[in-house]
Amino acid sequence: MLLCLFLFTFVISTIPEPKLIMDYINGVDLGKGIENPMFVLVYNVLGVVIFLGFAAICYKRYEKKLKNGEIGKL
Fold it and tell me: Measuring CA to CA, how many Å separate 14 from each of 27, 50, 73?
């Protein structure tokens, strides 16, 4: 249950407001101080991809050390 809540909030925080995206696509003036929603979407998604890639690299290195028996020795 907690994982589902985390995934839901993670997705919601990554994607900009749909109305804002549609207004941008339709050419509506978004007003002063509002960032380009497509830039925000790409920025957030790239941040997630980079973070998950780095986490995967670190996890693979950890698994390799476990396999070689380097972790757990006193």
Answer: 22, 14, 41
| Residue 37, number of CB atoms within 10 A of its CB | 20
49 located within any domain: yes
CA angle 59, 70, 74 (to 5 degrees): 125
Do the domain assignments include residue 41?
A: yes
Instruction: Look up the domain containing 13 and give its range.
Output: 2-68
pLDDT, one tens digit per residue, over 3-61 is 889 889 888 888 888 899 899 999 888 888 888 899 999 999 999 899 999 999 999 99
Domain total in the chain: 1
